[in-house]
Amino acid sequence: MLISSSPSDLSENDLSLALLGTAINMTSTNFAAATFDTIYQVQSNCLNFSLSAEKSTIECVEGLPLWRRSYNEINNELYKGYKNGNPEGMLNEIMGGLTSFTNNSKSVQFTFYFVYMNLQISMSFLLYPLFKSAKSASVVGMFLVIGTGLLGSNFFTLWVRDPSINSIWIMALEVYPGFALFRGIVDLCDYGIGSKRAGTFGMEWHHLKDNNNGMREVLIIMTFTWLVFILIAYSVDNISSLRSCLSSKKSPKKITSSSNLCQEPNTYVQMEKEDIVLEREKVEQFQNSPNSYYSAICYDLKKIYPGRDGNPDKFAVKGAHLALSRGECFGMLGPNGAGKTTFISMMIGLLKPTFGTASIEGLDLLNQMHLIHTIMGVCPQYDLLWDTLTGREHLRFYGRLRNLTGSALDEAVDDSLRGVDLLRVGNKLAGKYSGGMKRRLSVAIALVGNPKIVYLDEPSTGLDPASRNKLWEVILEAKKDRTIILTTHSMEEAERLCDRIGIFADGCFQCLGSSDELKNRYGGSYIITITTKPNNVDEVQSMIEGLFPNATRTYCLSGTQKFELPKTSINKSDIFGAIKLTKKRFPIQTWGVTETTLEDVFIKVAVEAASAIV
Ligand SMILES: Nc1ncnc2c1ncn2[C@@H]1O[C@H](COP(=O)(O)OP(=O)(O)OP(=O)(O)O)[C@@H](O)[C@H]1O
């Protein structure tokens, strides 16, 4: 313990420094010191003490409330109360803080904290565009809070009380919300504690006129900066939205040949294919002269999800043009996260498009969605059924929503149940249905009441092959007199049901056409699949590539390899000859030759789209 041998030699300051205490002198408002400094203080009238060198302890003879052996003890008492009560009625720092709440006008305090809170919120809006991630915003926020606390408690509070410092400088500092808060709290505490001692009441509205406090200036400065901050933040936000809107409006024209759609943090470079250009031109033509042959027309639908928690905006759908005729079943294929569900959600009115619109049976998606709902059926990706209603009750409910009543409703419900092979179990609770039965009921709900347009989001997910075939028959029957938009991950389903297929990747259609057209366009090749032992993989590859220089290996895993050979450069007998030759060198477990499948097209298009993101 660094204490001089004779207690009488010690000054108050020496003692407080030597005892791990803070050198800050005790004042009635240094309550904030609890946060940043050790609270240990030797009070001015505690000068008679004894030092016991053997025990290395110091004891205060007069036993003033804050005189304790260690700052832990003091801190404990500050929070828990005095050990033997507080007969002297002394205030400690924390009590000082509380007094500022209890001894000042509630309405003054409410106004002060309310204005500060709003100022802080508007400052957050103002600073928001400066940060790209939530993490960096939190780190900067933490530094600001700690930095303001240190500066406020160690400097600003002293300056406020220093008459030699021009009040203009203090007011200039109060433009920063943290210092304005400090100033207000200092004044409230001065009034609170001062009045408690004097047995009067603290700050009231009429005290704002007094020159010995800065509450009036603080309130004016905070209200003014609050309004300025919110106005600037609002203008910045509007300018950036306007910019993004303008750039999205320009994009369709830019896209015609090769275009750039720019979005932080990546740049998307997209080469539009001929089929996409043709579809867009068709849609643009209908925009000027509507055509009743087409039941659903999408005009450049776009969706940007606003970024949250510091994350950037997500451009989920970057522009979809589509014209679907009556009786057409259109299949949307695409990798996970391509934007299919977002597209469908816009079409069924769950999400508002950021740009563009669509026309369903002549009704506008943006302004007449309530009418579109009456001619639309939806089978969502996940079954939305009530466990306590029967299948029949579900269909009656949705039939009524589509304006069916009386015998027409009964007939439609029976037809729907029959169509999906649920007539026998129509009166059973949906909660007791198997997964396949629930899926079929969801499809029946989408079709009941003869809607003009039906959206089926992965309708056969989770069905066994027999139930799936049954469901496909229902959809094939249903598509005769309505337009169906179907999303699926099953190539077989798309080939079986869809008249046209669009592969959707990276927020837009990458190709459009019938299954055969796509296979011809992206295929036109034979696929040889060969499975050998994994250690023969390299030999097989060099042999095939030696025999067919145009061959490209498209797949290789655990000894199974796929090679793509352009049809024009080869005939099938050459392939059989090559396989025979290979078999002589090493054992081939299985092999096969196929023409391009829709799955090959899908993989090719999805990979191309992914590699176009620079
Ligand atoms: N509410 C949202 N806010 C922000 N981003 C979203 C939101 N919903 C979807 N996204 C993002 O938009 C992109 C497209 O999502 P979407 O669900 O439309 O894809 P999908 O093609 O339907 O995928 P899946 O086949 O897996 O259902 C994804 O990157 C997704 O993370």
TrEMBL record:
PANTHER family per record: ABC TRANSPORTER A FAMILY MEMBER 7-LIKE ISOFORM X1, ATP-BINDING CASSETTE TRANSPORTER SUBFAMILY A ABCA
Gene3D superfamilies given in the database record: P-loop containing nucleotide triphosphate hydrolases
Keyword presence, Transmembrane: yes
Family: Belongs to the ABC transporter superfamily. ABCA family. CPR flippase (TC 3.A.1.211) subfamily.
CDD domains: ABC_subfamily_A
ABC transporter domain location: 299-531
Protein name: ABC transporter domain-containing protein
InterPro entries: AAA+_ATPase, ABC_transporter-like_ATP-bd, ABC_transporter-like_CS, ABCA, P-loop_NTPase
A Pfam family assignment: ABCA12_C
Membrane-spanning residues: 110-131, 137-160, 218-236
Keywords: ATP-binding, Membrane, Nucleotide-binding, Transmembrane, Transmembrane helix
Organism: Penstemon davidsonii
